[in-house]
UniProtKB/TrEMBL annotation:
SMART domains in alphabetical order: PINc
Gene3D superfamilies per record: 5'-nuclease, P-loop containing nucleotide triphosphate hydrolases
Assigned GO CC terms: cytosol
Matches recorded under InterPro entries: P-loop_NTPase (IPR027417), PhoH (IPR003714), PhoH2-like (IPR051451), PIN-like_dom_sf (IPR029060), PIN_dom (IPR002716)
Family: Belongs to the PhoH family. In the N-terminal section; belongs to the PINc/VapC protein family.
Name listed for the protein in its UniProt record: PhoH-like ATPase
Keywords: ATP-binding, Nucleotide-binding
Length: 473
């Protein structure tokens, strides 16, 4: 490899990243995410890409896309010898200015501790060792999503890192909650020149002050204490001014939604979002038992059957089992999805029990009517569809990658509302973390948009047993 011919100054400044296969299979665009640094692909990485290209899974699709990117780079830069490095700037989407090096010769390095040579991971480690010997003054770093691979590399004295570029946030504690508590002196500092008015039965306040800069459109602001707590949503925001709209009180029985009332502050905020026709996209985060699915179903039934805003409810979720997979399931798409939709059935039972006056026959008729308006769909058949005037509920959304999330949300046609539910502490998909989940991604990207809203539900309302278990186990 004649990369050694490159100027020593540049070599010392830029790093050489050796990519493990799982990085490319996780994010094919990772080739263009290393800015001015160079990338080295061992032959074993290309072999493993080839072995994983078959099938319809997300991993197989990514392996094929990575191969297409590599083919494009090699084809476009036919004038450059591969040994000298292929300039990544030919595809200038992500401003990558480094070079791509492919292994063009056999590398025979004896790994310490006599690691088995046949194993692909060890062959990649052998390449890292060789590159360190060839470029003693250059920083050579192995990038892998495999924790054990990184442990092995560090045990052998090599630099190893996780692939962080897909992370939306380094720390999920910084994730937008959708709420802002107003300080005790808020009205003293922001009340000067305040305007207030009534419109469509709602009270509005226009406030001026330093805190307005920290607010986002459709963020909830609240102030507890006093005779009556103050709950409002930010409708407009500039650097020094904000318009606050006082919320509807869904904790009062007269404002119940399909028999459901809000049991705490966050549930009240969630129902204000779910029942607002101007909001097209909603994300609800929260641990088990906070009422995400129940509130969403109650709002969807009220708007579909009572107010006739939507024609039907579509519910989908990622089919990732908690334990061992039970194999193929018989029946139609709806019947195959039934075992995954236990949460839907449980919540429909709760919503059905609210109508005490209807009697057994009335409740059975209502249940049949509700089931006829709720469609359960598999994620696998979503591509290419367009939903018009539908209420789309994506359950367990924390298991979706950002790419899958984009595929789903872009299905929304005119008059469709999309609601994503999930708990980022319960991710079951391999290689997805709290920081790189599609749910974290959309919460961060959609905040402040005038037609989207987010709330993180805090308090469990399932039972005292469930609350205690969530706290101590």
């Amino acid at each position: 490899m004649s990369a050694a011919k490159k100027s020593k100054g540049k070599a010392q400044q830029t790093k050489l990243f050796v990519l493990d296969t799982n990085v490319l299979m996780h994010d094919p665009t990772s080739l263009f995410r290393f800015e001015e640094h160079d990338i080295y692909l061992p032959m074993m990485t290309l072999e493993e890409l080839d072995n994983n290209k078959k099938g319809m899974s997300e991993v197989a699709r990514n392996a094929r896309q990575a191969s297409r990117f590599l083919d494009e780079l090699v084809t476009v830069s036919h004038e450059t010898a591969i040994e000298d490095g292929i300039p990544l700037a030919t595809r200038n989407e992500h401003a990558a200015t480094g070079h791509l090096f492919l292994q063009t010769q056999a590398i025979n390095t004896e790994l310490p501790l006599r690691l088995p040579v046949g194993k692909s991971d060890n062959q990649i480690l052998g390449v890292v060792m060789y590159l360190q010997q060839v470029f003693p003054k250059r920083e050579v770093i192995l990038v892998s999503k495999d924790i054990n691979m990184r442990i092995k590399a560090r045990a052998l004295g090599f630099a190893a890192e996780d692939y962080f570029n897909d992370k939306v946030l380094e720390d999920t504690d910084l994730l937008y909650t959708g709420m802002l508590e107003l300080p005790a002196d808020f009205w003293d500092k922001h009340g000067k020149g305040m305007e207030s008015w009534q419109e469509s039965g709602r009270a509005f306040y226009r406030v001026n002050g330093p805190l307005c800069n920290a607010m986002l459109v459709n963020q909830f602001v609240y102030q507890e204490g006093g005779e009556k707590p103050f709950y409002a949503i930010v409708k407009q925001q500039t650097a020094k001014q904000a318009v606050l709209e006082v919320l509807k009180d869904f904790s009062h029985h007269k404002n119940n939604v399909w028999g459901i009332t809000a049991r705490n502050r966050e549930q009240n905020f969630a129902l204000n979002l779910l029942m607002n026709p101007d909001i097209d996209f909603i994300t609800l985060l929260g641990q088990a038992g906070t009422g995400k699915t129940l509130l969403t179903l109650a709002a969807s039934l009220a708007q579909t059957l009572e107010h006739k805003i939507f024609s039907e409810i579509i519910m989908t979720r990622v089919t990732v089992p908690v334990g061992e997979d039970i194999g193929f399931l018989p029946g139609t798409e709806e019947e195959k999805m039934a075992p995954w939709m236990g949460a839907l059935e449980d919540n429909l039972d709760v919503l059905n029990q609210n109508d005490q006056e209807a009697g057994e026959w009335g409740r059975a008729a209502t249940r049949d009517l509700i089931r006829s308006r709720i469609k359960v769909k598999s994620l696998n058949f979503m591509r290419g569809r367009t939903f018009i005037n539908k209420f789309l509920i994506i359950d367990e959304a924390q298991n979706l990658t950002p790419k899958q999330m984009k595929t789903l949300i872009t299905r929304a046609g005119p008059g469709t509302k999309v609601v994503c539910l999930g708990n980022i502490a319960q991710i079951d998909t391999p290689y997805l973390t709290e920081g790189s989940s599609g749910l974290t991604y959309v919460v961060d990207r959609f905040k402040g948009w005038g037609h989207s809203g987010h709330i993180t539900l805090q308090r469990g309302e399932r039972s005292r047993l469930a609350d205690y278990a969530a706290e101590v186990l």
